[in-house]
Design brief:
By secondary structure, the chain is of the alpha+beta class. Helices cover 28% and strands 28% of the residues. The strands form four sheets. An eight-stranded antiparallel β-sheet has the order 1-2-6-7-10-13-14-15. Helix 6 packs antiparallel against helix 7. The protein starts with 21 loop residues before the first strand and ends with a helix. The relative contact order is 0.16.
Length: 330
């Protein structure tokens, strides 16, 4: 499973077909979550078997829950593994986003995620300062070397977790599968991560519900986006957390301090050209303060974002980049 319950789940609205095409829907369960593929074609050229086979291949590469996956083998190794084309793509983008976010996005957080009880194994207690200090010596993408189909660690204790980017990549691969079948209109959704291709057969834009918490911290549709291409992904901390006394511990971990994130952010929804990009940046933006995150997005032409956050008085508010505002239904 690459992403967890912190994901917001956009909702699909009102499809209508013309006589020459029909709507087909495929649903299933993979990577620890549900998926729904909706597409338009004259025949059912895309199948559940094809989707499941693709997702299983991805799991064999990047699932932390499969002991023989490539990522599990790397994490248990002392030094190096040879990668496959799935890992190659995700690692390349991970290094780019790590550099662009000055280390906020970091795939070496795996031992920290595990220590705080959000990893594949159960954690009996919260880590103390001494334990976190020892773990932090193993964290940082400077401890990785990726070149020519080989991933090497500088220390045996270095482990990687691709949950913050691999599910978006999986959605991109599903979109590629559909397009190879000649499908041009679709919504591919996995765990709330979306790839969209439109318009709908009647010529209108595809409508996507953008979710966030309401004033009672319950999921609610806050806006409707109208798009015909690209990807929408969401990262948040109001769906998955641990309770520590009266305090909620976010599953999103600061790779520099070792502690769960503590800032005003509640959720970030990113719109980008592909889901691997949106997915990689939504977690990084969650790790910034709102002012910095807005500035970061406004400086990049390929990103737009919608933010839900806590005001200083504890109330919930939202804001968005100028480009994201343009895709919302008036």
């Amino acid at each position: 499973m690459y992403r967890f319950l912190f994901l917001c789940f956009p909702v699909l609205f009102g499809f209508f077909t013309r006589n020459e095409v029909r709507q087909f829907k495929i649903t299933g369960y993979a990577q620890g979550t549900d998926y729904t593929i909706t597409y338009y074609a004259t025949d059912s050229v895309a199948t559940k078997k094809g989707i499941d086979s693709l997702l299983d291949d991805i799991d064999q590469s990047m699932s932390l829950y499969k002991p023989n996956s490539l990522i599990s083998r790397f994490n248990s190794s002392d030094r190096q593994i040879n990668t496959d084309h799935f890992l190659d793509t995700v690692l390349k983008r991970s290094f780019e986003i790590n550099q662009d976010t000055k280390g906020i996005f970091d795939i070496t957080v795996a031992p920290l995620v595990q220590a705080w009880g959000f990893g594949p194994r159960k954690a009996d207690e919260e880590p103390g300062r001494a334990k976190l200090k020892s773990i932090l010596a193993c964290v940082g993408m400077k401890n990785l070397h990726f070149e020519n189909g080989s991933l090497t660690k500088t220390k045996p204790c270095v482990q990687i977790d691709l949950n913050g980017i691999a599910q978006g990549y999986s959605v991109d691969l599903i979109a590629g599968y559909l397009e190879k079948k000649g499908i041009r209109t679709y919504i591919a959704e996995l765990g709330g991560e979306l790839r969209i291709s439109g318009p709908k057969p009647d010529g209108s834009a595809i409508k996507i519900g953008i979710e966030g918490p309401d004033e009672n911290n319950e999921p609610a549709i806050r806006h409707i986006a109208m798009v015909n291409s690209g990807a929408i992904t969401t990262s948040g901390n109001y769906r998955k957390f641990h309770q520590s006394g009266k305090k909620k511990l976010s599953h999103l971990i600061n790779a520099k301090t070792g502690y769960p994130l503590e800032n005003e952010m509640i959720s970030v929804t990113v719109y980008a050209k592909d889901a691997i990009t949106a997915d990689g940046y939504d977690n990084a933006l969650m790790g910034m303060h709102l002012k910095d995150a807005l500035h970061f997005v406004e400086q990049r032409k390929d990103l737009e974002a919608y933010f839900v956050y806590h005001r200083k008085d504890g109330s919930i508010a939202d804001t968005l980049s100028a480009g994201f505002k343009k895709i919302l239904k008036k």
